[in-house]
């Protein structure tokens, strides 16, 4: 395949918030830089794990701007820009392009249910045409959240209409048949397929995936990077087993507060537990259980936290 813009391991970056629930730009940037130094090739910003739907347009622009201002390399960022209307999706996409992001991840319009294939094609076409040149579009396939599946036929039609612009897909179904279908249909044409399920990484790389964009990579990216680099053999197999365990640990509690709890305990920083409603903190029992699950993965403790301001003195 042609050189993938985001080839490799990409974490679905957590967005830190303060006690007042405002975006915490300092913690978010510190975590982003730690990830890039510990196994990540790139970062999916303001996706599901980053709670994009919990932030307004101004906040979303500021979060992305602050990452760049805090010296997170803009060429490593894939921001989510899809909202249920054309106007705001175009605004966020242009903003990302003008900052220097190579590409954006775009959800389908997710309020109206059962849109037709023709309606989805018209929506994405309008977004791409109105955004203008200089930006790659990645389609976000997550029907469990969006309730809007993206078919092979729709993606093929968009690739034909916008060659080199509709560049890839993140498939967050967790269904190997779905990711494999996208790879077999389009990878030979340079189309980048990124599974969102950590446990599929080695299997999908073997048939042409460009890498991954996953939530558990917030914790275990260095092991995913071994899988991506080595692909097969004892070292890759052992690393994939750790990644599989991390995927299971991440699923043992509500995902977003669970990841925040692991970061809070790993860094000694209570600030990682702050979270915007409707998400809520874990109960003490849930918190202890998810921490125990993660301790059993082999991915902890996290290395190199102090260098990036990620460790505070225990109270």
Automatic annotation (TrEMBL):
Lineage top rank: taxon: Bacteria
InterPro entries the UniProt entry points to: Aldolase_TIM, DapA-like
Tagged with keyword Lyase: yes
Coiled-coil ranges per UniProt: none
Signal peptide: none
TM annotation in the entry: none
Key words, A-Z: Lyase
Sequence similarity: Belongs to the DapA family.
Protein name: Dihydrodipicolinate synthase family protein
Source species of the chain: Muricoccus vinaceus
């Amino acid at each position: 395949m042609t050189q993938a813009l985001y080839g490799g391991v990409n974490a679905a970056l957590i967005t830190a918030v303060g006690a007042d629930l405002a975006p915490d730009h300092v913690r978010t940037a510190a975590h982003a830089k730690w990830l890039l130094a510990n196994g990540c090739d790139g970062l999916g910003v303001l996706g599901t794990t980053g709670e994009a739907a919990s932030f307004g347009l101004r906040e979303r622009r500021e979060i992305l701007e602050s990452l760049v201002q805090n010296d997170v390399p803009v060429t490593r960022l894939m921001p989510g820009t899809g909202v249920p209307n054309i106007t705001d999706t175009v605004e966020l996409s242009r903003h990302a392009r003008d900052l220097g992001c190579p590409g954006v991840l775009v959800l389908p319009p997710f309020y109206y249910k059962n849109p037709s294939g023709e309606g989805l094609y018209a929506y994405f076409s309008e977004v791409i045409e109105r955004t203008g040149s200089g930006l790659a579009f990645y389609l976000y396939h997550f029907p469990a959240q969006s309730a809007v599946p993206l078919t092979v036929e729709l993606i093929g039609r968009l690739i034909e209409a916008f060659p080199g612009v509709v560049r890839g897909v993140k498939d967050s179904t967790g269904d190997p048949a779905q990711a494999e279908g996208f790879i077999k249909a389009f990878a030979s044409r340079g189309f980048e397929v990124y599974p969102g399920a950590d446990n599929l990484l080695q299997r999908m790389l073997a048939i042409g995936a460009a890498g991954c964009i996953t939530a558990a990579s917030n914790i275990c990216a260095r092991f995913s990077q071994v899988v991506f680099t080595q692909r097969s053999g004892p070292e890759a197999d052992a690393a994939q087993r750790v990644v599989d365990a991390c995927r299971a640990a991440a699923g043992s509690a509500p995902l977003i507060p669970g990841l925040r709890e692991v970061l809070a305990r790993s860094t000694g920083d209570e600030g990682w537990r702050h979270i915007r409603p409707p998400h809520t903190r874990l109960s003490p029992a849930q918190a202890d259980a998810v921490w125990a699950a993660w301790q059993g993965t082999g991915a902890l403790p996290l290395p190199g936290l102090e260098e990036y301001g990620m460790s505070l003195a225990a109270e």
